[in-house]
């Protein structure tokens, strides 16, 4: 039993530490607890709240811990009596953790790591510990399963070991079986204690690493943003509602995430401030409370990553709540000659934005809200920049804390230092969402649909080409604005056989999306999205 408990304690620690490092939010305890909360019937939740009040979550975690302790002891006993059943039990617990992690709303591939790694650690520790069991308790590898044997007798430390095999080959000197047993027992207790201690330390370390994030999450969850001065409106007919086509507003949980932050910065808004300095007549610093006291407007802007391949998914559209950067810059009064604003995030990421994109009449904002909530931690809580028309790497600084008004000739930023283009305007593009790749298609009328964008310019038309035929106009949904993507659809009279579909957007400025392929480096991919389709 002790071997099982020590192995599982070790495993749990490994899992918590792994979660803190690679997948905050996928702590095995937390994901299992969250899954249980989701699965629990209403009466169970109400009973828990009635019994434990606001301590219901602690009670749940303690409960999970106790159940785990029982299973751990059982796994130890099973591993000795019916190997490899003990390891199987640990593997099953690990799989349950992985399953729980993968069903969480913000699950990614990394979410399976903590529980997976914990299971591997637990199985390994159990094997090693069972091998080090005092001889009289150790399983006899060659003996058949001791099904008929009575329960293992409790052997007093001084009693001669029963049926003890020869002392281990590396035993220092011939000793009596009793002395060897005692030595073995002490060694085993040492190993089990070490495994448990490492597990506890790892869990404490992991939990300390996550404490900051948890505190910031608690603050965020309790936060109520002020009502917007003006609300953004999604016009009727902006979303065709076609299954498989990206919804016109991207839910936060589905919004792509790109950044250099290995651990998501945890900022308490009470400690947040933004400093505007450099080539300005007066330095300006604004705190969280000051920012929230300003009139905040909702606006809808599509964000795109320069690393988005043609047809890729690094694009999303959200309702942002924020304050115009142009107004704050006006307070600071940039001096003549300034042509760039270098924004810096709390973790040192920088972006260089052409100053006119922040001072012209476009809606460049310091955003505090995303789709009706405070910014999610991964999307820049408490404050980020959103600039229509520019790729994220030159404009959309998350966790922003500093704006330096400067010149392109004087300073460079994170990605421009690494060879990416200086200006970063979003290139016109379009994407086929349906038919999905590999989706079976039968002859007849087939809906082909997707999205197209040319931020801050607008989309005038989308055309579809079947095989090498004429370009045919698609129907456009009602656009929200020139700063957002627009859905398109095309009813294709498909006949059986192999076909190729391509899509092409035209901007309101007359620019036609080029078919010439360019890689994402240095300033965004070009080319046309296409699908090969077998119509059955
Ligand atoms: N602090 C910080 N902000 C950042 C980045 C980053 O690495 N660190 N990446 C930028 C890039 S390249 C993009 S495309 C957008 C992505 O924003 P999202 O993760 O909210 O979709 O954030 C931008 N802001
Ligand atoms: Mo990006």
UniProtKB/TrEMBL annotation:
Transmembrane regions listed in the UniProt entry: 58-78, 85-103, 109-130, 188-209
Ranges for domain Oxidoreductase molybdopterin-binding: 262-411
GO molecular function: heme binding; molybdopterin cofactor binding; sulfite oxidase activity
Classification via InterPro entries: Ig_E-set, OxRdtase_Mopterin-bd_dom, OxRdtase_Mopterin-bd_sf
Superkingdom assignment: Bacteria
Keywords: Membrane, Transmembrane, Transmembrane helix
Pfam families assigned: Big_7, Oxidored_molyb
GO biological process: sulfur compound metabolic process
Protein name per the record: Oxidoreductase
């Amino acid at each position: 039993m002790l071997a099982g408990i020590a192995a599982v304690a070790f495993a749990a620690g490994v899992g918590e530490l792994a979660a803190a490092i690679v997948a905050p939010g996928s702590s095995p305890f937390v994901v299992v607890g969250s899954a249980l909360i989701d699965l629990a019937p209403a009466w169970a939740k109400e009973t828990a709240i009635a019994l434990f009040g606001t301590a219901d979550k602690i009670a749940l975690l303690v409960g999970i811990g106790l159940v785990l302790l029982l299973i751990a002891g059982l796994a130890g006993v099973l591993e000795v009596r019916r190997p490899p059943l003990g390891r199987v039990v640990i593997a099953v617990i690990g799989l349950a953790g992985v399953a729980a992690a993968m069903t969480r709303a913000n699950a990614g591939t990394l979410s399976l790591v903590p529980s997976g790694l914990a299971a591997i650690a637990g199985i390994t520790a159990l094997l090693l510990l069972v091998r080090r069991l005092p001889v009289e308790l150790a399983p006899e590898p060659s003996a058949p399963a001791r099904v008929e044997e009575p329960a293992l007798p409790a052997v007093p430390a001084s009693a001669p070991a029963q049926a003890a095999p020869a002392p281990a080959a590396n035993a220092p000197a011939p000793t009596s079986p009793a002395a060897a047993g005692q030595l073995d027992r002490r060694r085993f207790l040492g190993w089990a204690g070490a495994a448990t201690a490492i597990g506890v330390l790892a869990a404490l370390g992991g939990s300390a690493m996550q404490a900051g994030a948890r505190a910031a999450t608690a603050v965020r969850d309790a936060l109520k943003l002020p009502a917007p001065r003006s609300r953004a409106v999604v016009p009727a007919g902006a979303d065709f509602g076609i299954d498989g086509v990206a919804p016109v507003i991207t839910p936060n949980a589905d919004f792509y995430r790109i950044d250099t932050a290995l651990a998501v910065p945890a900022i308490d808004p009470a400690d947040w401030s933004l400093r505007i300095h450099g080539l300005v007549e007066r330095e300006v610093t604004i705190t969280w409370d000051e920012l929230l006291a300003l009139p905040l407007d909702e606006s809808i802007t599509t964000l795109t990553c320069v690393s988005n391949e043609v047809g890729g998914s690094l694009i999303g559209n959200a309702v942002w709540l924020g304050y115009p950067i142009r107004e704050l810059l006006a307070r600071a009064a940039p001096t003549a000659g300034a042509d760039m604003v270098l924004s810096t995030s709390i973790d040192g990421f920088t972006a260089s934005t052409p100053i006119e994109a922040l001072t012209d009449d476009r809606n460049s904002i310091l955003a505090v809200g995303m789709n009706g909530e405070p910014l999610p931690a991964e999307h820049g809580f408490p404050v980020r920049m959103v600039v229509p028309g520019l790729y994220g790497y030159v404009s959309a600084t998350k966790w922003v804390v500093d704006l330096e008004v400067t010149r392109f000739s004087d300073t460079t930023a994170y990605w421009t230092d690494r060879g990416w283009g200086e200006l970063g305007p979003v290139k016109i593009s379009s994407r086929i969402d349906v038919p999905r790749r590999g989706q079976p298609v039968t002859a007849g009328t087939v809906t082909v649909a997707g999205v197209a964008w040319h931020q801050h310019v607008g989309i005038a038309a989308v055309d579809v080409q079947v095989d090498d035929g004429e370009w045919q106009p698609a129907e456009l949904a009602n656009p929200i604005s020139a700063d957002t993507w627009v859905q398109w659809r095309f009813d294709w009279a498909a006949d059986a056989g192999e076909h190729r579909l391509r899509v092409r957007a035209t901007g309101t400025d007359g620019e036609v999306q080029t078919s010439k392929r360019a890689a994402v480096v240095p300033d965004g991919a070009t080319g046309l999205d296409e699908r090969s389709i077998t119509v059955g």
